[in-house]
Amino acid sequence: MSKKLTSRAEDYSKWYNELVVKADLAENSAVRGCMVIKPYGFAIWEKMQAELDKMFKETGHQNAYFPLFVPKSLFEAEEKNAEGFAKECAIVTHYRLQNDPDKIGKLRVDPEAKLEEELIVRPTSEAIIWNTYRGWIQSYRDLPLLINQWANVVRWEMRTRLFLRTAEFLWQEGHTAHATKDEAMIEAKLMNNVYATFAENFMAIPVIQGLKTESERFAGAEETFCIEALMQDGKALQAGTSHFLGQNFAKAFDVKFANKEGKQDYVWATSWGVSTRLMGALIMTHSDDYGLVLPPSLAPNQVVIVPIYKSEAQLDEITTVVNVIMSDLRGKGVTVKFDNRTTHRPGAKFAQHELQGVPLRIAIGPKDLENGTVELARRDTLTKEVIGLTDLADKVEGLMKEIQDALFNKALDFRNNHITAVDTFDDFKTILESKTGFISAHWDGTAETEDKIKELTKATIRCIPLETTAEDGVCVYSGKPSKRRVLFAKAY
């Protein structure tokens, strides 16, 4: 076993970039800031997508699809939303090319093919969706309208990093309409809780649920709920958000309904989303200097079986036993792959599956056949043990939960050990540079103080925790009275 990556302690950013590429998750594309998600990386995303989609449908939501392009006039209808995303927009101005008469084989924009109205490549879909909802909603009988979309969006980021921040990324975005403010607020909280449940139960990532400050809210929202996670380098990562939009979009797009009393009223709205940024969170929470570490719930292959043999006859004997093992494991709901490639030696296979984070590896050779055993290796602890074939299926089934829980508890211990309460700005700066992690501190509630702390330290208020309790104190920066602590951190 040898380290194939730059050490996390040496250069965390380089380690992350190397891991993403070497583990065959994704690579940069010919388009600046955009990525190619490779089959193994996409298989993990598909598992995330499947679990989330199931959770959405269990809470009453349906999937639909809306256009990639948004007419500029629609995009501008909700002013705060338009202003919030304006600097990240990609815009279509022409609809065809023509041959360049001065350069053979070259194309140029046809100046006569200018669009009558410019189109925004969606950075988010509220505008096109709420324009559509105007035709779908007339009465309280049409509510609630609970729609989710799986799609790609474009935000023209200047500084990009695979999965964490790309100019184009995959995500889901829920957009719901309700008859009352209370119903919409319940929905926004519900979906934030769905995200938290998914992160903790499937990704094995402990998260803190909270509210964003006004300056950190989604553009056009009245409240933004979020889940915040802590990566191994002590930086926070926003893993999901759910927004209470009030009646802002309904008023912007004139979406009204007749209530039970027959009176016209504007509907109440939410939107919520997570993206392929979750892939970055998964990588940075659990992985080590040897490569990716995957929780069993999201591993494309929970078990890989590697045969060790010298002759075709030995491989045939091993294959017969492996077929039984695979049948037993699949009968217990375990996904398993038999790596019987003849183009790679066992050592190379071990290295690949270790790098790609397969939770359990089974090695079986001629001596194992004689003894009725296999070698079982855990990716999370890098430990091995010899197991009898008769006990194997039950052992593996138990290890699936054990590994899942172990990864969560390890991340939880790290997170809890990196939440530090401070009462002075000197301590704030010291902890931020030495220990890192979340800093629990009093804040006076003003945007001026929030901005000044960010300017001086690059730390932002990640959230106002939902479980926070009232506590009299003074702001860590201004010294003004404060009623509660909030969580600061440097973040991705």
Task: Walk me through what this model shows.
The protein is an alpha+beta fold and 492 residues long. It has 14 helices and 27 strands. The chain has an eleven-stranded mixed beta sheet. Strands 18-17-19-20-21 form a five-stranded mixed beta sheet, sandwiched between helices.
Structure described in brief:
The protein is an alpha+beta fold.
Instruction: Tell me the number of helical segments per DSSP (H or I, 4 or more residues long).
Output: 14
Low-confidence stretches: none
The major sheet is characterized as: 11 strands, mixed
Largest beta sheet: strand ordering: 3-9-10-16-13-12-11-24-27-23-22
Query: Radius of gyration from the CA trace?
Result: 26 Å
The count of strands amounts to 27
Shape: globular
The whole-number mean of residue pLDDT values reads 97
Oligomer: single chain
Strand content: 25-35%
Helix content: 25-40%
Tell me the span between the first and last alpha carbons. 31 Å
The assigned structural class equals: alpha+beta
SSE map:
Elements: H1 12-22, E1 26-28, E2 35-37, H2 39-58, E3 62-63, E4 69-71, H3 72-75, H4 79-85, E5 90-94, E6 97-99, E7 107-109, E8 114-121, H5 126-136, E9 145-154, E10 168-178, H6 181-201, E11 208-211, E12 223-230, E13 236-246, H7 248-252, E14 256-258, E15 264-266, E16 268-275, H8 277-286, E17 303-307, H9 312-331, E18 336-338, H10 346-355, E19 360-364, H11 366-371, E20 373-378, E21 384-388, H12 389-417, E22 419-421, H13 425-434, E23 438-442, H14 447-457, E24 460-465, E25 473-474, E26 481-482, E27 485-489
Parallel strand pairs: 3-9, 17-18, 17-19, 22-23
Antiparallel strand pairs: 1-2, 4-8, 5-8, 6-7, 9-10, 10-16, 11-12, 11-24, 12-13, 13-16, 14-15, 19-20, 20-21, 23-27, 24-27, 25-26
